[in-house]
Design a protein that fits this description.
single chain, about 575 residues, alpha/beta, Rossmann fold, 4 domains, 20 helices, about 15% strand, globular, ATP-binding, Helicase_Restrict-Modif_Enz, ATP binding, hydrolase
């Protein structure tokens, strides 16, 4: 009954025949958006469902009579089609073939999907289109408007859309304003964007609905290059800031031994993954188009199968990406076309062979591999990286957001109860890369922990001895061996949560519901860390406190949190 509307047959059919069930974070963010009439920046981890959320929000705003038109702005042409396809499934028709020469949107479309370049080319046209009728503007991956190469996009967006009825801004990664501030985004005193709603990788991993764990084998090796007539030889892992760009260029040179050996390792890992998931795929992110083609030739020799090559010079690149997402071939090689926004859930193995060392780009690449394919997806993704800083540090930090998310939420809940109520891109010098040795395994990073080659070999032997399936990676076995007493104590990250105000006005039932949600998240983290069953953990808590979560008091619920903290520290 709550969805009942008096509509003509055509409008009724336009709504579609399905109801979108939102994830919890999407429902919470939607409530915040509908309460907040100002610009809304939603930062959510790749794969969380930002597109679905934004389109659901658009439908709600249409139903409330706040808007009658939609403009979706995206960074690449491929994403135009992706948005239009997703919108059509929800009964919203977006013209993804619109050009500035059209000047007006056809009446049988609800809106358009265009690129930032298109808007920047004619901002006054888009100002007229968005003011002709009440329009919602959705700026996807809005951080691109602050890129060094696109500094004209910001002023164009402001000129085009400052009079729009509503604006939704989307991003998959937290971002800073190190150049020109992006219009419609709020910043804190450290020039970091302030989201209206944030759903990061740590929160998503705890929910076990959106993202999967990921391991980072970090590979080193000997490289040589010539500079000013002198030949320099060093270990990739030992390269300092001054020599790193030159060493990395030598390692990524397709004529050396390093990158072919990395591709062989990655293909072996993909074969292991495909023994359990037959259509698992791999992605190589190359530094430039020439290297992308060269890497594809190397992979063809290794696998006997021609990989897909998606580069911007190819007019069919978007179609090739879509085809790869649906088929079961092994590898796709790209430069930046699949760094963000592109949804290929079957990706399980990757090689980071890009020269870009910014945290934002690295996280965007990681986002291609962590999307779950359903609640039964037990895959642990693998991304091979050069053993260099800052990439090595980024890999260590990524999963630490899990502990930070938990610490923030617990601190906030306990405080409420107590109260009663700068990115830098790598610049490659004019240096002649000579050659490189085969890649040497430096360490694998899983859940923020480092596992050496010796540990992984012992883990592989143990897994073979007890007959574990091939889907269980050596890093996972090594992690379990450490938990069994063979490893070191791992610290947990803590942060100081901001003051969140009094609980005055909140009912006791609401307070207890918040505590139960936090308990469930901590139980999920404990299950992830130890391999226990959810039911076993809850049964043990019931036995200790003499009640169950439904009948527990606030006192015994907080006692459960304390007990879970002890168990997590031991784990």
């Amino acid at each position: 009954m709550i969805n009942g509307q008096a509509l003509c047959p055509a409008c009724n059919l336009k709504k579609g025949s399905s109801v979108t069930e939102l994830r919890r974070w999407q429902a919470d963010a939607l409530v915040d958006l509908l309460r907040n009439p100002s610009d809304f920046l939603c930062v959510a981890t790749p794969g969380a469902g930002k597109t679905t959320w934004a389109l659901t929000a658009a439908r709600k705003l249409i139903e409330r009579g706040e808007i009658t038109g939609i403009i979706v702005v995206v960074p690449t042409s491929h994403l135009r089609r992706q948005w239009a396809t997703a919108a059509a499934r929800m009964g919203i028709q977006l013209d993804h073939r619109f050009t500035n020469g059209n000047t007006v949107v056809a009446k049988d479309f609800d809106g358009v999907a265009v690129t930032y370049q298109t808007v920047a080319a004619s901002p006054l046209l888009w100002r007229r289109i968005c003011t002709t009728k009440p329009t919602l503007v959705i700026l996807d991956e809005v951080h691109h408007a602050g890129d060094d190469d696109h500094l004209t996009w910001g002023p164009a967006l402001k000129n085009a859309f400052e009079e729009a009825a509503r604006r939704i801004l989307l991003s998959g990664t937290p971002f800073r304003s190190d150049r020109k501030a992006i219009p419609f985004v709020r910043y804190d005193e450290e020039r970091k964007a302030v989201p209206s709603y944030n759903y990061d990788y740590g929160q998503a991993l705890m929910d076990r609905e959106v993202v999967r764990p990921i391991a980072f084998p970090a590979l080193t090796g000997q490289v040589r290059y010539r500079e000013a007539g002198a030949t320099v030889s060093l270990d990739l892992a030992d390269a300092d800031d001054e020599r790193l760009s030159k060493a990395l260029a030598s390692a990524l040179n397709p004529t050396g031994e390093w990158i072919p050996s990395v591709l062989r390792r990655a293909d072996e890992e993909l074969t292991r993954q495909r023994s359990e998931v037959p259509d698992a795929g791999g992605l190589v992110v190359a530094a430039d188009q020439g290297k992308a083609r060269a890497y594809a030739q190397i992979l063809a020799r290794i696998t006997g199968e021609e990989p897909t090559v998606a580069i911007s010079d190819d007019p069919d690149a978007s179609e090739l990406i879509s085809r790869f997402a649906k088929d079961s071939t092994r590898w796709i090689v790209a430069v930046q076309m699949v760094s963000e926004g592109v949804d290929i859930p079957r990706l399980a193995v990757g090689v980071y062979a890009s020269r870009i060392r910014t945290e934002m780009f690295f996280r965007q690449v990681v986002g291609r591999f962590v999307r779950m394919r359903g609640t039964e997806d037990e895959t642990v993704a693998t991304l091979f990286i050069p053993s260099v800083q800052p990439l090595y540090g980024y890999a260590q930090e990524i999963e630490k957001t899990v502990n930070i998310a938990l610490a923030e939420e617990e601190e906030r809940v306990r405080q409420e109860l107590k109260e009663g109520g700068v990115q830098t891109s790598l610049q490659v010098d004019l240096v002649e890369p000579l050659d490189s040795s085969e890649a040497v395994h430096h360490a694998t990073i899983l859940s923020g922990e480092e596992f050496t080659e010796a540990e992984l070999q012992r883990a592989s032997a143990a897994a073979e001895q007890v007959g574990l399936p091939s889907s269980v990676s050596p890093a996972q076995v090594a992690q379990l061996l450490r938990m069994g007493g063979a490893g070191r104590v791992i610290g947990t990250a803590t942060v100081q949560a901001p003051h969140s105000g009094s609980d005055q006005g909140r009912t006791l039932a609401d307070q207890k519901a918040t505590l139960r949600r936090l308990i469930n998240k901590k139980v999920g983290r404990l299950v992830y860390a130890t391999g226990q069953q959810h039911s076993h953990v809850h049964a043990t808590l019931n036995r200790i406190f003499g009640d169950d979560a439904k009948t527990a008091t606030v006192q015994t619920l907080t006692g459960r949190l304390d007990q879970l903290d002890k168990w997590l520290e031991q784990a």
